[in-house]
Amino acid sequence: MIRVGESFDLFLETLKHSNSEVLNLSDELIEYYLLEEFAIEAPSFLSEITLSRLLNEGIIDNNILEKGKTLQKMYLSMDQMKNWDSSSIKESSE
How far apart are CA 56 and CA 90, in angstroms? Predict the structure, then answer.
């Protein structure tokens, strides 16, 4: 099992790859960050287990916990899209 500090670092890295600023990048970088990096990180580092662990250790609060859960739901919604590319991500309502 990874240490809680490492879990937090990986949680932060996941957030870095999924913030709205990514949408201002080139199409190639959007696809890299969201379709490669975020797609690999989100299932693990936004999971209920990771978020609960960070909450229980006092590293995040309930507000961040809920935002993390929301972001994971958005990822799962994106994961169901048939067409994963920068255009469909930019046009998504989420």
Answer: 35
- Tokens matching residue 67: 């935002």
AA identity, residue 35:
L
For residues 51 and 32, what is the distance between their CA atoms, to the nearest angstrom? 24
Q: Which residues contact 48 (CB under 8 A, 6 or more apart)?
A: 69
Query: Which two tokens mark 38?
Result: 């975020």
What number of CA atoms fall less than 13 Å from residue 75's CA on the CB side? 26
Q: How many Å apart are CA 94 and CA 89, to the nearest integer?
A: 8
Print burial letters for 18-30: b (CB count within 10 Å at least 16), e (below 16): beeebeeeeeeeb
Q: pLDDT of 7-63, one tens digit each?
A: 999 999 988 888 888 888 898 888 888 778 888 888 899 999 999 999 999 999 999
